[in-house]
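This part of the workshop introduces the protein records we will be handling. Getting from the letters to the tokens is the skill we practise here. The record below serves as our worked example for the rest of this section.

…
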Amino acid sequence: MKTFIDNQGRKWSVQVDVSTIKRVRGLAGVDLLDVLGGKLIDRLIVDPILLCDVIYAVCKPQADDLGVSDETFGAAMAGDTIEHATQALLDEIVSFSPNPRDRAALGKVLAATSAAMDKARDLIDESINSGTMQRAIDAAVAPLLSTHGASSGGAPASPASTPPP
């Protein structure tokens, strides 16, 4: 069983078993077993709200015992807390897999996903630090700035200044 601490200092236990998977399906509409296909990881990574809903569903029995509502739980989830909760959830999903080969494969999928995300973050940092991103922004904005303030063409003459036919 993995744990994480929310931004209010509450310690949450993350345990994935059959009842947890059923509860998450019912409350969040997410099948934790879809993680083997890789698409669930992508969905959870790009949607931190869905991720927190899933984690709340996983922790719901404990939340009920503590009198913590979904909204209160969500209010205590931000920044590093979400990262720690995500890691706890993914580790527990790997541990749940009943087949040793599936566990190993899932562990590799998660490691590869994590490595790819780290590499993407490194590339973004490198782009920012090297000035590449700023040059791209400048190049995109330059045409807009060169036309700013330029005349857009002549307006038609007013009827008073146009001689009658």
Notes: Residues 13 and 99 are 24 Å apart (CA to CA).
